[in-house]
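User: These chains co-purify. Model them together.
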Amino acid sequence: MQIVVLVKPVPDTASSGERLRPDGRLDRAAVPAVVNANDEYALEAALKLVEAHGGEVTIVSMAPSAGSDTMRKALAMGATRGVLVTDDDLAGADHVSTVRVLAAALVGLEYDLVLAGADTSDGQGGVVGAGVAVLAELPLLSYATKIEPDTDAGTVRVRRISPTGYDVLESAMPALVVCTQALGEPRYPSLKGIMAARSKEIVTKSLADLGLDPESVGGAVATTALVGSEAPPARAATRVVRDTPDAAAKELVAFLAERRII
Amino acid sequence: MLRDAVRVLADERIAPRAAEIDRTAEFPWDVKELLASHDILGLPFPVEYGGLGGELLTVALAVEQISRVCATSGLILAVQELGALPLLIAGSDEQKQRWFPDLAAGKTLIAFALTEAEAGSDAASTRTRAVRDGDDWIIDGSKRFISQGSVADLIAVFATTETGEETPRHRRMTCFIVEKGTSGFGVERIEHKMGIRGSPTAELSFNGVRVPDASRVGAPGEGFGIAMRTLDRSRPGIAAQAVGIAQGALDVAARYANERRQFGHPIAEFQMIQAMLADMDAGTEAARQLLYKACTEIEAGSPDTARWSAMCKLVAGDNAMRVTTDAVQVLGGYGYIDEFPVERMMRDAKITQLYEGTQQIQRLVIARALAGRVG
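Assistant: Joint model of the two components:
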């Protein structure tokens, strides 16, 4: 089966440093990029599916041109090829633009499933997967904790997290599945995978290649703007108790009792 | 990305073992298994024989990252490459098919046996002899200072086959692959060493060791040339080990200088310490850049291969010795005891000035290349 995974390069959340430029946009050059963590879970799910059913995984990203470096990491995990949509006119794109571009990038690709992460650590909209499903006219299966395609029947079943457990959804393929971390921990790229990724194909596409009008997407038509950003206030000094469990517990209880918390 | 992957593995899995490997002076089979299971030992081998097809630079990056935490462990990969190079350079497709898949998978190890007690820098004076006997060769003699000689499954051994006075000295040697269990092959002793203590350095004996002609690598008399071309490609591996050791010592010294307080200040605020740390950093970066440049030049088939190879080992080895010595100095008394790793790194660094050609031989190679250019 053919699977497309939507993968976004995001600033490494583990790195410190100023991320925003004065105009409120992300300073992507200042912070190393990584594959968005939730997308790694989606990619892991895709890799497991092709390992079980055969087929290939194509990753699709919308990012500045340096995004191909981050995509190599996803290719090293085992994806077959990448498609990178990059265009200067996309700078400052909002969720609506992102959805339009990714939906356009799917046209012409062959796929049974499109997998997307639940949200991204930078944009945090959580709507792109659903939006792409709408524009690409694909059934949407959200909050998946298990994905079971039936390639003979051309259908897919998904366990969707519910307040009481899970629901089982079924749809025809192709379909779009929004993944959760319950699908399983993403793998580390193996050395073999890293070496192989060096020669894997990443096709770069511009807005013109996708037939999109630069006036219709990107920062110029963004519907939201970031107007402020604050770091949480510094916390007071922390006291660390290092002792045997019994002694440490006594000290913690005494600390809380002293402050009349218990 | 590859460097980062190896770095994480080295930090998480190898670094905690380094002190113990040094103390026990036992070959770290667990680390060898770790490197094998992560395909790191497959890096120097072509893809068609089960390897990862890594270039010289790729192998160097991996050796550097491992050596940063444990020079003995970094050497496992460097020696696997060293031992396999005669086959890579002059082996037949049949020989590669026969031995490379297991070597690339790390199921077997290979050592490089050129040095003898009386033939060190003057490698052409090899006394180990191989005599043709029907379809076989009979090897007699002994080899000394052979890294991993006692744990290797295969030995690339160099023996004199042409004895006539009319044959030039450099045309008398031939290379053979000897398998560990072959009758007449023995490990005489393991040296007690100052550094790289977990890497067994063995004296090997060959008493009427019979090998088939199919185990001969390259043509009779080509051995010396094969050995020299091997060293041209393997010295960057030692330079990488040296850069790694230096970086490891610098990291420890810089962290210590920021944490250690004397006279009410971290000692990193004192200019005499700052100058040492700055020189250590600059020297290590210079050695690293020369190594990377040498790797790409050699890989591109530079006619100056011997010079690049000798220069990077010369600069990196001397830098490692200087930087580790200064790291001990930065840590003061704490640097001299085994509570911190810098004394081990200082002992480990010394070998990079000695093996695969002493620093004096590197200078000789560079000077000859220079003379050739001027002439």
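The interface with chain B takes residues 72-73, 76, 188-192, 194-195, 197 of chain A (CB under 8 Å).
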